[in-house]
């Protein structure tokens, strides 16, 4: 069996930081409401020059350097995103930008679960012996699609990119994973295409619409997350033959501090083991797990051989967990 190791990480966030107070100029809200309900204090927002591919390429170059390889060594690039610069996909732009000349590149969309879905996809290519060196990116610029007049969603999101290098390895450090989807709850969280009928020529109607801003039923998404995330982590621990005390770090999609706290409590994981950077970045969708991972590694929190239980959850609905050793 071919093993898998994560050998490097990187991250990039936009320069502009916007605190809660600044949002009171847009909608009726307060720093107190946002901070107590979500744990968010500020978020980074991308300016027009900070495109998704620019942020992703910066995070990728860091990850490649920290893995000690060069871009030309990469066999595969997977970009997990819901907000590509180009609906045809942005992975190839990143491939060109970083000079990964021999890599195959494609986008993968699973909203806030995208990074975990990407990790499992990358793992299949490595385990089967097809590819050895994979760059996995999680990047999103949700500020493009937020309704900035809707206070129930606009305060939650931020922009950014994170990346890891996954490589074939003698010992297997990807200890277990589980992926889940439930389309019957799709309507709780959407960035949907809104069709607008156009009669192209007589009797031929086509749709030339636009994407709707993000809509969310916050209470239902909250309920879903605190129920399903502990379940999927439990299941993955069992599969990996680990008990919860062996987890060094709980690394969840950074959606809401109350979700992080509730999941940790249900799993009986002490607060000190929960990685959180929500206060600084808000919810960066597919980027949140790799940004938090990269920061924790660079801060020296995550150390070699630590066991990390990561879980993503979000639109689809989709959710999943991956347990890996650093
Ligand atoms: N400022 C002030 N008041 C607000 C704001 C705001 N920004 N937003 C909503 N309110 C008001 C509401 O209008 C409502 O007022 P009302 O009682 O007069 O009607 C009141 O606050 C309570 O609103 P609720 O929606 O019930 O607030 P709740 O306690 O559920 O918190 C929140 C909302 C923070 C969104 C919560 O439901 C949540 O975190 N849900 C999970 C969302 C999430 O994690 N989404 C992302 C996951 S998937 C992904 O990442 C894409």
From TrEMBL:
It comes from the Bacteria. Its EC number is 2.3.1.180. GO terms for molecular function: 3-oxoacyl-[acyl-carrier-protein] synthase activity; beta-ketoacyl-acyl-carrier-protein synthase III activity. Pathway: Lipid metabolism; fatty acid biosynthesis. It is an enzyme of class 2 (transferase). Residues 238-326 form the Beta-ketoacyl-[acyl-carrier-protein] synthase III C-terminal domain. One of its GO terms (biological process) is fatty acid biosynthetic process. Signal peptide: none annotated. It catalyses: malonyl-[ACP] + acetyl-CoA + H(+) = 3-oxobutanoyl-[ACP] + CO2 + CoA; 2-methylpropanoyl-CoA + malonyl-[ACP] + H(+) = 4-methyl-3-oxopentanoyl-[ACP] + CO2 + CoA; (2S)-2-methylbutanoyl-CoA + malonyl-[ACP] + H(+) = (4S)-4-methyl-3-oxohexanoyl-[ACP] + CO2 + CoA; 3-methylbutanoyl-CoA + malonyl-[ACP] + H(+) = 5-methyl-3-oxohexanoyl-[ACP] + CO2 + CoA. InterPro entries: ACP_syn_III_C, ACP_syn_III_N, FabH, Thiolase-like. CDD domains: KAS_III. The active site is at 112, 253, 283. Catalyzes the condensation reaction of fatty acid synthesis by the addition to an acyl acceptor of two carbons from malonyl-ACP. Catalyzes the first condensation reaction which initiates fatty acid synthesis and may therefore play a role in governing the total rate of fatty acid production. Possesses both acetoacetyl-ACP synthase and acetyl transacylase activities. Its substrate specificity determines the biosynthesis of branched-chain and/or straight-chain of fatty acids. The last Arg residue of the ACP-binding site is essential for the weak association between ACP/AcpP and FabH. This is Beta-ketoacyl-[acyl-carrier-protein] synthase III. It comes from Tolypothrix tenuis PCC 7101.
